[in-house]
Fold this protein.
Amino acid sequence: MSLPPRTLGSRSIFPYLFGGLFLFLVADSWRRAEVNPGIFFEAEGREHLWRFVTGMYPPELSWEFLELMVRPTLETIQISVMGTLIAVLIGFPLGLLATSTFSFQGLLHESEYRGTGVRHGLKVGLYGLARGLLSLFRCIPEFVWAFMFVRAVGLGPFPGVLAIGVAYGGMLGKVYSEIFESVNTRPLEAIQSTGAGRLQIFFYGWFPQVLPNITSYTMYRWECAVRTSAILGLVGAGGIGQQIEISIRMFNFHEVTTLLLILFALVAGADYVSAKVRSLL
Amino acid sequence: MTGSPQYHLERVRKVFGRGQVALEGFDLQVAEGERVALIGPSGAGKTTLFRMLNCTIRPTAGRLSIGGQEVAELYGRRLREMRRRIGTIYQQHNLVPRLRVVHNVLSGRLGSWSLLGSLASLARPAGLETAHRALTDVGIGEKLFSRTDELSGGQQQRVAIARVLMQDPDVILADEPVSSVDPSLAETIIKLLLAISDHTGKTLLVNLHSTDLALSYFPRVIGMKAGVKLFDTAAAQVTPELLQELYSGHVPENGAGEPSREPEPRRIAV
Ligand SMILES: Nc1ncnc2c1ncn2[C@@H]1O[C@H](COP(=O)(O)OP(=O)(O)OP(=O)(O)O)[C@@H](O)[C@H]1O
Ligand SMILES: [Mg+2]
């Protein structure tokens, strides 16, 4: 019996090509990034490490200092929450537009309209624009965004919020659109067959399918935002990060330890909250 | 919708991407209130035919008119109005798994609801009484507030029937409405559909894998195979030879006589 024709290009050389390229990259990076585990076993290296570690102990726990750190801690939380919120506001609509099954093909479009080329072209253009914006937002590191926003709006938490909002908006939008593309269209067709309009199909068939996934991914991103907001502080975008930067500059490594502990508690707390929310879905 | 036949198909052809011909030269006339069973091996094109009959996909070529209206000329609001008058019970579970049963049932009303009304109903279901009655009609009234994905296959199929009851269409298309229920329930459901069509004069078209059910309950039976119509006749005229021919040369593709499944869309885990 003859085999049916292969419709999916499984006879491709790409897997081999990429496999080879990957191996080459790993080998090359090992050499060029100067990876050298031996350094941990040399006397000098060990001494450096030891001095660094002991310099950070014990953590600074005086009331004065802790009291001073309450505000920056809260600020870090606020930056992460506001930043994630803005990221959702940017990512959701752009993610929708960047979804081909939402913006120009599939059951919301085929057989719905008289096919005018201009209209279709416009939709595809919008789709391309959304994808482009998302890539742009995402490929510039948060750190660089923060730096630019500090220049634009001055020091403080606000540039941090903006940086997280834009960079994370790009990441959220990208992942949202992948979640949207993976929606099962059969329930959508059934709803469409009752005579429902596009938005009704969206709210009854589409949204309930994607909600759990986008919520859980957003929660995960918020967790990352807590950590990121600390890094952003290093360029003057407020929060704990700014305190870490000050303490390092003053050689107060005991304080750095305390701040890292606070950061650890924050991330663990965010992890706990997001796990709780996800378990409710 | 009087006078002209409900469905009028002339040389309808459907080709899916990559040249997959699902239906070829299909002619069909169905009068208002008629009850027709379609039988045929897996892959014959029954589901594809129904998707054209409910106006969710368009024929590649040929004429399709419903109640005297050319479907090719319908767009936007008028297309949706046409769809609203045709209720479909799908073969595979076309319910939204995450929604509660009540919302899946009420989604049958979407064609008659405004956007705001339908949004409000998600928060506070409108027409609970009627939804409950529809579910009770199919024997699972107690599942009104369950989550749909917690129901068994047969129960979900009945939710889909309840949705069509809510829609209250002129035509009911049932694509394998009894594929995942036990034989006695299958008979009950077929009888229920026939009774609805009897009382309300709704046209009823049913795809069936069980030739027994088709021959014993439907006055008219259509046999199709590989996208073409093999016979279209009164149930009494369907001979064993005809059935033999209908299913001959048919090697079950996915297990014996199992309905074929389209591949599930790829999902990503996040
Ligand atoms: N979306 C699609 N894209 C490509 N081919 C399709 C598509 N839908 C159906 N087909 C093909 O059209 C043919 C008819 O399919 P259809 O689902 O109508 O069969 P069926 O008679 O309903 O079968 P079953 O009894 O197994 O449900 C099949 O060969 C199938 O592979
Ligand atoms: Mg089918």
